[in-house]
Amino acid sequence: MRLPQPTFGKVLAGTAIVLVATTGTAYAANTVGSADIINNSVQSVDIKDGTVASVDILNGTVTGGDIADASITTADVLNESIKSVDILNDSVLSADIKNGTIVTNDISDGGVTTADILDGTIGSADVGDGSLTGTDVTDNSLTGDDVQDNTLGTLDIATDAIDSDEILDFGLSNEDVAVLGAAVNADGTLHHSQGFSVTTSHLGTGLYQVDLGRDVQSCVYNATIGTTTAGNAASGFIDVSPRSGVPNAVFVDIHNAANTAGQDSPFHLTVVC
Asked: Where are the domains of the chain?
């Protein structure tokens, strides 16, 4: 006897009976929810590759153990979120730092040493005014070119340090060797002088005061009768001595040739201190 052929509907009905019999429950598409899944039962093989997104992961639950080594790039890191505690000590190299980005606030006070500074790169603008001392300068390394003209004073030069070899021939004036002088007219007016601010006074016949503008009490005096212009002066006697009560001045006393009376005469005075 020939059996009748099964229809599509009968086959589908039979399949549904088998599914119900083997699973106990029949599910329609997109109807399985979280409540239908046993906790901790979904595994990697159950999840399609590349389908888990940020919204699927609970914030703050991913750790270093979940991330493959050397797989995070700059695109994965939020700008300006890396801190010192996130970086391994002594692991940042020059190549990691953008040129020209380090400023003074990035450097620890007193942290830069000579080994950190490129030779020959420090200029005047990098050195604080008045901050260098003699200990910062190598002995015998400065030359005349390093010293500004006309800036050294007597306090900068050691006592007895300069000898004749260092002095320009005829380069010293009378003031440099403490030689003072004055040429005085017979009426007591000053004809010319060498030295400080020299002033003269006619105190009486043959009597004069010459103020040399500095203390000359410990100096040596020499005076001679002589004209301040061409010609010869009348002969006579001349004496010179410290001026009593006036430390900057000397007293000049001139007498006639017989040394019997005072006489007004021009004279030349030299004072060596």
From this structure: 179-272
- In three-state secondary structure terms, 54 is helix
Rounded-to-integer distance, Cα 146 and Cα 124, Å: 13
3-class DSSP assignment, residue 18: helix
Question: Between the CA atoms of 119, 124, 128 and 131, what dihedral angle is there, to the nearest 10 degrees?
Answer: 80
Say if residues 270 and 181 touch (Cβ distance below 8 Å).
yes
pTM higher than 0.85, yes or no? Answer: no
- Contact in structure between 188 and 246 (CB atoms under 8 Å): no
Sign, CA dihedral 114-117-122-125, equals negative
Which residue(s) pair with 180 in the sheet? 271
Q: Residue 239 and residue 241: Cα distance in Å, rounded?
A: 7
User: pLDDT, tens digit, for every residue of 165-203?
Assistant: 777 775 666 556 689 999 999 999 999 998 779 999 999
DSSP conformation letters of 170-188? T---TTTTTEEEEEE-TTS
pLDDT tens-digit profile of 240-255? 999 999 999 999 999 9
Residue by residue, DSSP assigns 146-168 as: GS-TT---GGGS-TT---GGGS-
